[in-house]
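User: Reviewer 2 asked us to show a designed sequence for the structure in our supplementary figure. I'm pasting the structure tokens here. Could you produce the per-position amino acids so we can include them in the response letter?
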């Protein structure tokens, strides 16, 4: 169910972003067109909820409904800020939580419910998922600037081309406001002709922004790990800890 919900958001996001590659393959919209992709995303949403109904759990359905609303709100809020260089860190994290972290949190909370965990453990796992999701997206936004398409399985450097300012560039503009006109030009032209991704990467290294955001991702991962303290030692808890290391150290 969670994978179908996630995939539905990706199918719809690729339409909005005009993306033609997803997971190293042509996206649904690139292969079959936007009309088919819209219907495919809708079908995935409805299939997810149809499957979830089989559990006959109002608690789970409430979580899934709330999650779907949050993700849609996140996309809508982000669309209102496309092309705005005045986006703040608070704006950025609000969108991040809605579009990404709530999904991680819901996955973990539903897993706890199905595992018949008590309320305290459910909340702990929901918090774990929230912090894991934040750490994941921080790492993902760094990779959009530093990694290549072959590593990511999707187009690299697209956030800025689509008019989306992520935390690395928010921090960079704070350090070097004179870059604003160059970033605006990239957004308007949809290309890195005047200021390349390598140039941006060099500036992020110069101001130690890459290490700073890696450190912030690690802080959220540490918070997530603390949430696991309510669980007994087991191979399953170890897997959840390993997921944190994977997210903060990944290069794809």
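Assistant: Here is a per-position design you can include in the supplement:
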């Amino acid at each position: 169910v969670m994978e179908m919900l996630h995939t539905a958001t990706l199918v719809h996001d690729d339409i909005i972003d005009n993306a033609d590659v997803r997971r190293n393959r042509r996206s649904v919209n690139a292969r079959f067109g936007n009309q088919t992709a819209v219907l495919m995303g809708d079908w995935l949403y409805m299939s997810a909820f149809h499957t979830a109904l089989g559990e006959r759990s109002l608690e789970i359905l409430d979580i899934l409904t709330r999650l779907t609303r949050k993700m849609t709100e996140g996309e809508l809020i982000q669309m209102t800020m496309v092309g705005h260089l005045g986006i703040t860190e608070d704006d950025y994290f609000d969108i991040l939580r809605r579009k990404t972290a709530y999904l991680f949190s819901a996955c973990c909370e539903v897993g706890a419910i199905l595992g018949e965990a008590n309320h305290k453990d459910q909340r702990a796992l929901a918090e774990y998922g929230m912090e894991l999701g934040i750490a994941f997206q921080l790492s993902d936004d760094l990779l959009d600037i530093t990694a290549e398409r072959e590593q990511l399985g999707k187009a690299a450097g697209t956030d800025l081309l689509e008019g989306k300012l992520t935390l690395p560039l928010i921090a960079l503009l704070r350090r070097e406001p004179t870059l604003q006109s160059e970033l605006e030009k990239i957004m308007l032209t949809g290309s890195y002709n005047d200021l390349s991704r390598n140039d941006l990467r060099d500036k992020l290294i110069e101001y130690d922004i890459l290490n700073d955001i890696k450190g912030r991702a690690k802080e959220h991962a540490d918070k997530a790990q603390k949430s696991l303290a309510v669980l007994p030692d087991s191979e399953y808890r170890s897997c959840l800890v390993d997921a944190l290391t994977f997210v903060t150290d990944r290069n794809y």
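For the response letter, you might also mention the following. The longest helix spans residues 119-146. The two ends are 25 Å apart (CA to CA).
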